[in-house]
Amino acid sequence: MSDEKILSASLRRRTLLASMAAAGASAGLSTFGVPRAFAQAPEKPSEIIVRAWGGSWVEALKAGVSDSFTKETGIAVRHDLTEDNEIQPKVWAAVAQKRVPPIHINWDTTTNATKSALRGVTEDLSDLANLKNATDLAKPVGLDGYPIVNTYGYVYVLAYRPSAFPDGPPKSWKDLLDPKLKGRIALYNDGIGFHFPAQVAGGGKLEDIPGNMQPAWDFITKIKAQNPLLGEDPDFTTWFQKGEIDAACTISTNAREAKKNGIEIAWVVPEEGAKFDTDGLWIPKGLPENELYWAKQYINHALTKEAQQIWLDGLGLPGVIPGVNPPADLANDPSYPTKEDDFKHLIRISSKVQVENESQWFAKFKEIMQG
C-alpha cells in the first residue's frame, strides 16, 4: 500500500451500529457521528477502563478523548497504566477462560494489537460510524475488518540536547558512539524503534529484514558499550527533564514534552532513517453486551476531529481524521509526516513481519544489553 494511499482522505463507507439508528432522541451526542443518538442505547456502566501509557500520553488522552466522552455520556473513564506487554497475557487468559477481561479498551501499539487480533481475542470494530471519515491509515494492514483501529502515526526520532552537540545536530545514529555520550543515551528496554535503523547503521540492508539481522545486532553491541539507560516513555521525559541523558531513540512526543517543560531539546531523522509506526485502540472479547456497546462509543468518539485535535496536539502526532491540524511547533517537522514525500526517510516494516519476529528481536536486544 502506497503512502499516498495511506494518507489520502478517501473515505471508507461503513454501516452504522444497528443500536445507534434511533433518530429523534432527546439527548444526543453530536460529536459521536450520529446526532441525537442513543435513545435505544443499552444501560450505561458506571465506568469504562482504558489501558494507557503514563505521563504526557495519558494526560493527552484524558484531555482529548476521555474527559469529553465522560461529559457527553456521564460514564467515568478509568485509565489503567499497566504496561501494554504486561496487560496482554492477562487479557488473553481472560478470553481463553471465558472471563470478563480486566479492561474495556486497550490503547496499544499496532504490532502488539495485531498479535491479539491474530489470536482471535479482539472485537471487530468495522461498524463504528466515524470510520467513514478516517483515512486509510486507520485500517490495520493485512487483517480482515477492523479488529484494531489505528488512531495516529509516530516516528522514533533521534532526540538530543543541542548543548551536547556543539558542532551541530547529529546526522547519523553512529553519532551515539561518541565516547562523550557514554552513560548519556537512552533506548527502550526492548530496543523497539531502534532495530531497523541499527540494521542500516551496522552496514546492513532493510530488505534483509528479517532474514539477516546480524548488522543490527553488531551495531547494538557497540551501543551497549555506551552503557545506555533503558526504560519506557515516562522515563524518557523524566531523564531529559533531569538532565540525565543527552540523546535517545524515542518517540518525538517524549522529547517534545521535555521541550514544553523548558528543557533545551531537539530531534532529527538521521541519514539512516527512523522507524514509523502506528498505535491503535481495540476491545477484548468477553465484555457484557452493554459495556461492549459503550466501549465502542469511546473509540468512535476518539475518531472525531474534535477529539483527535486535542488528543494529538498533546502528543504532537499526525492522526487519521482529515482536517486535524499539526501544532504550530511541528509544521513541516520530519516527525510529523502528512504527505508522501515526508515518508522518504522513514522506515516502514510490515506489521506481519514485526509480529512474526518481534519477540525474538526483543529477546536478542535484552541478551546483548545484559551480556
Choose one word for the global shape.
globular
Task: Give the strand content.
Answer: 5-15%
Biggest sheet descriptor: 10 strands, mixed
Distance between the amino and carboxyl termini: 39 Å
Number of strands: 10
Order of helices and strands: HEHEHEHEEHHEHEHEEHHEH
The class by helix and strand makeup works out as alpha/beta
Mean pLDDT: 88
The rounded Rg comes to 21 Å
| Continuous helix count | 11
The helical percent reads 25-40%
Low-pLDDT residue spans: 1-30
Oligomer: single chain
Structure description:
Residues 1-30 have low confidence and may be disordered. Helices cover 34% and strands 14% of the residues. Strands 1, 2, 3, 4, 5, 6, 7, 8, 9 and 10 form a 10-stranded mixed sheet that branches. The chain is of the alpha/beta class and 371 residues long. The longest helix has 20 residues, at 351-370. Helix 2 (56-73) links the parallel strand 1 and strand 2. It has 11 helices and 10 strands. The chain has helices spanning 3-6, 56-73, 84-96, 110-119, 195-201, 214-224, 233-241, 252-260, 289-302, 305-315, 351-370, and strands at residues 47-51, 76-80, 105-109, 149-160, 185-188, 229-231, 247-251, 266-268, 274-282, 346-347. The protein is globular and about 65 Å long.
Please specify the SSE layout and strand pairing.
Layout: H1 3-6, E1 47-51, H2 56-73, E2 76-80, H3 84-96, E3 105-109, H4 110-119, E4 149-160, E5 185-188, H5 195-201, H6 214-224, E6 229-231, H7 233-241, E7 247-251, H8 252-260, E8 266-268, E9 274-282, H9 289-302, H10 305-315, E10 346-347, H11 351-370
Parallel strand pairs: 1-2, 1-3, 5-6, 5-7, 9-10
Antiparallel strand pairs: 3-9, 4-7, 4-8, 4-9
Helix pairs in contact: 2-10, 4-11, 5-6, 6-11, 7-8
